[in-house]
């Protein structure tokens, strides 16, 4: 037998040629061709052309596998192999309707390619293991290699390259099966009772009869017994009714169902089987990132659900399949004695008969034994100082305080092998120093990070909140139900509001909103959330349910799908007569109330109401995007009882004229939404047919069949593979500084239908995506094109807490430096803010061409648009790489914390007595409402110091500056809701501190009054702060959560932004339970000041602040046993980074006014 025959045999048997000789080794895998055209040709000449130095002159063997790592011999395809030529698979040699798979090959080469072994045959390998089963005969094989030069092989290497010999399998064991009823069958795998018969019926998931269901005997080797007939009935003679005999029912698209024949003395048993829809594998928990030292052990776990459950798991390291025989993995991968080379990304692929799915990659960081787990040197980080703290040394209002990197690290772990570490460690603050900053008339203390180390991560909680409202009118869904995994977890309020704490280990938050008043369509949304903790706001747009129409079930019925005036329907639903069934499978013959609600993508305003996130899982397990041509929700009910009804073979006809991209005609499919996973699953293909309409007009339709069963939401979609990512960052001002980036913002991209030449309707949309910004912005997925720059366009917008953020202007002059993208690429992308042509339009979005970056243009290589393969480059792009920008107008308020803290990132919290928020995940926001009688809007400051705690007395917690908002009805009156630090326990939870709060208006102001209830409370709760200066107000903040009668507003929440937002809403409204975005200056006021015009020569109150940081402040407190001011007490820090300093996130209803700098 020739060498070619040896390789072919080994290939077709799915064997690798694994040499035991030390002088041979396998090359890397090569894949230079794809199975399009004539087939897949991985020929040696072509491989050498691309990789000349990586393949030897005379390969000894060839191994081929598909790109899914299936050996060529197991694919069932006809292939060819020759070490001198390579590997090839021809499409015309495959069975009808099937093409070759995509193959990769590798070659067995001598370790030293230049060395030629002289002589003839090498030694024989050992015999392969006998593959014969018990009682059978098979062939063992062995092989040898000719070491001569090619032109001498004929003379020196006579004889076969491979030999075979006959071998027998082991002896078969005797039959030990014993039957309590009946007798043992011939195969010795079941008991038979000739006098007994099983009669049964099979119904599908929707209750309809299931013809063609396979009935198999259960066991290690299932045997087909019969098939169900056209009515779903079946008959099985000979099964024993002993309570042990069983059979399995299988039906395409359904989960297998095992049935045990119950004990009975009757000659006939009647069984009814109701199948459930097969559930594709779904990732419940992705593997978690790990950090380990060299030589340690770690484990990655891949938790996957599905019905049937996944039976095969594969693990990949940096895209390469790991050897199962070496690592012995299943759903858990254990790596022992780690090496530096094992660092990288790991992910799993799980498969079952219902499909496959891939997990997200998890990063393994391997650190050397003597290497620092965290970089001890802090990263640069600037905070903005108050407007009266200009720094002459740096000529700016910024001060360097440093921050620690946001990353996992190696802590003190036990020896247990766990999917999730029992304790998580993060790089955090190890050392801080106090600095004094010189300001105008006073010194400002701040804490500067001087060292980083590995600390326990701060425990955080993720929250989603928002409102569920009608897409057309904004009407709230009052007291609606919110479901997760089929279980109700919450309800909406009277105004449609909701707040949900994301359960731990949630990877994909899928919520279904159900209106118990039946006004709105049940809506399933996939809501992005911040996995690091904190709250994210979502506005849920709901489609109003269409009024039902009455159908007669005994006649054909047609329902049109289309909602755009003066345009033809996109599609129609045709229901044949007698197609309606009750949920128990009984045919329904009465009238039907049919409500079909269609989301028409030809109207861009419907994009926000689209369900789920338009993704599906492909055959290889990858999550892939869809482009929609319309979604429709179906509700069929019994006219009298209101009982939901199912429908049998329903026909969907899509007008081919509505498909604007010809290549989509052959890939259009029907999909249904899985409400538990939020993923779309295939219901059927659409085929093209021509129909005559009238005498002359002939039209083309795409026609498909479907059943309307337990799922009621469907989609007309095509998979789209032209994909890119768009880089977006959000800032808290127009300064666009790295330290002023905002996290937790919901950025959204709406893919518009292609422009003329591709489409006839520029207002139609095809897909939308939302991503939460992190410390490095967000990468939004989008469709793009490399042939025509404007083939695809998109609108991009950003939302924070229900507030639409502003995009950078594009007119009257385009400023590439402000937009964040240089020319000429910016011109190619055609950036335009929504008010580009009409300044009356909102400024909260921009449009761009989605031009795929050209590999030949250097200016397009680094963003803001990245190819689909470069997601990691997009996520890790440096700040100076091109990106698009949004910003918030926060010129009317300013926050300063002595201990820096980023409210976007709860992980940045630090254990310190002067922390503004003393306890993470329990944030208490306090506001005092101040009325100002003045023709001008006035800046008001709260200066917050330790009041009664011996560790902090007289020391600064922070400063808040806020500009008052003018009353819309009273020109000379304004009001301000001013934040102050709440009194309460400090971080050690040992004793309370009543914060000493000074309220100081800017300018020539005089305190007129304090609300009597607040004054009475302060007098009755000693100690009492002295208020001799009528230009300001001083108090020891109350410990109790008071209310609008006191002019004090307090809210506690797990997210600082949420606590502030709610408290501000109540303060604006002047009530203890209401909310408003309009300042009501006469309601719920605590203090009143009257301010006149400031004289030119008069110094600002901000410039008159006392220099002393504690002594003078402490002297204003009347207290027995007063503690003298001393040095700062011992301070402990907890892991986390020094976050961005950010202002209050409440949106003002007035036009922003710039602060007056003093």
From TrEMBL:
Residue span of region Disordered: 1107-1158
Signal peptide: 1-20
Compartments where found: Secreted, Extracellular space, Extracellular matrix
Domain of life, source organism: Eukaryota
Ig-like domain span: 281-365
Record's keyword annotation contains Amino-acid biosynthesis: no
UniProt-listed Pfam families: CILP, CILP_5th, CILP_8th, CILP_C, Ig_3, Mucin2_WxxW, TSP_1
Biased composition (Low complexity): 1107-1128
GO CC annotation: extracellular space
Coiled coil (UniProt feature): none
Keyword line: Cleavage on pair of basic residues, Disulfide bond, Extracellular matrix, Glycoprotein, Immunoglobulin domain, Secreted, Signal
PANTHER family: CARTILAGE INTERMEDIATE LAYER PROTEIN 1, CARTILAGE INTERMEDIATE LAYER PROTEIN CLIP
Protein name, per record: Ig-like domain-containing protein
Species for this entry: Alosa alosa
Lineage of origin: Eukaryota, Metazoa, Chordata, Craniata, Vertebrata
